[in-house]
Structures are given as C-alpha cells and as structure tokens.
Design goal:
The protein is 36% helix and 28% strand. A five-stranded antiparallel β-sheet has the order 2-3-1-5-4.
Length: 148
C-alpha cells in the first residue's frame, strides 16, 4: 500500500554553522545514493536577520520506491518512544492538505542520532500522505499503520 505521494526534506545552514557537516547529515537521511538514483539536492541561499546568509538544502522524493525506502529507514532509526509520541501527536502533525510534518533535531542528527523535536533548529520532513479517500481520518490511519 502506498503511504506517501511525495516527501520533501529540507534544512537551513546558517553562515556560522559547518555547512559541509550539515550536508553530510542531510544526505545520511537518505537510504540510497543520490547520483545513482538521479536525485538532485537543491541548494538555495537566503538572507536572514542581520543580513546573515542562510544555505537551504532541499530534496523532493516523488517516486514510490524512494518514498517507501525513506519511510522505512526513518521508522527503523527512531526509537519506539519516539514512534509512540509521533502517533499520539498525529492529529496536530497533519494539516488540512494531508501533509504530515516531522522535525529531526539538527544537533543530534549531526551526531547520527535521530531525534524528533519541536524546535526550529532541525531537519524538516514533509510527507504528503497517500490516503484513499483523501480524508483526514484515512490519512491518520495511514500514518498510524506506517508507525506500527
């Protein structure tokens, strides 16, 4: 059963942070080789407060084999307690367009630890839930099934 239509991953690297390390951690979120799978890591820059430069790394997973592999990898790398917490918070993590949001703590992921957070210093994951019919309850059921 298809779980996601697409998944968007992104992270911000502020100019005082080690962009190479953040990029490596970002790539470590993906259980496949980007070049081999012909996936492009999009890099854009923005200007933040006090004219600070911000590098934005982003990738969109659209093929089912990529979304499925990623979701399995993510689920395998978060603790049971974290899965239970996400399941309990599922209602508030799902928006009206049936997009499901998870944030992974940036500092912990730099140390190879997957940790769900609510802070802004994070790796952003936006999962467009494949629910049929396209209703909130059906989407919540898909998310709960994925986490179980």
């Amino acid at each position: 059963m298809k779980t996601a239509h697409n998944i968007r991953l992104s992270v911000f690297a502020h100019e005082e942070e080690d962009a190479k390390k953040i990029k490596q951690a970002f790539i470590s979120l993906l259980p496949f080789d980007l070049e081999q799978e012909k996936l492009k890591l999009r890099r854009t820059t923005a200007t933040g407060f006090s004219e600070r430069k911000i590098l934005i790394l982003e990738i969109m997973l659209k093929k089912e084999r990529h979304t499925r592999k990623f979701l399995t990898f993510l689920k395998d790398n978060i603790s049971e307690d974290q899965k239970l917490m996400i399941a309990r918070q599922a209602e508030s993590r799902l928006d009206d367009e049936l997009d499901f949001f998870i944030r992974l703590d940036k500092q912990r992921l730099l140390n190879k630890e997957f940790w769900v957070t609510d802070s802004g210093d994070c790796f952003h994951i936006k999962i467009s839930v494949a629910a049929y019919p396209a209703k909130r309850e059906a989407a919540l059921e898909v998310v709960r099934e994925w986490l179980s």
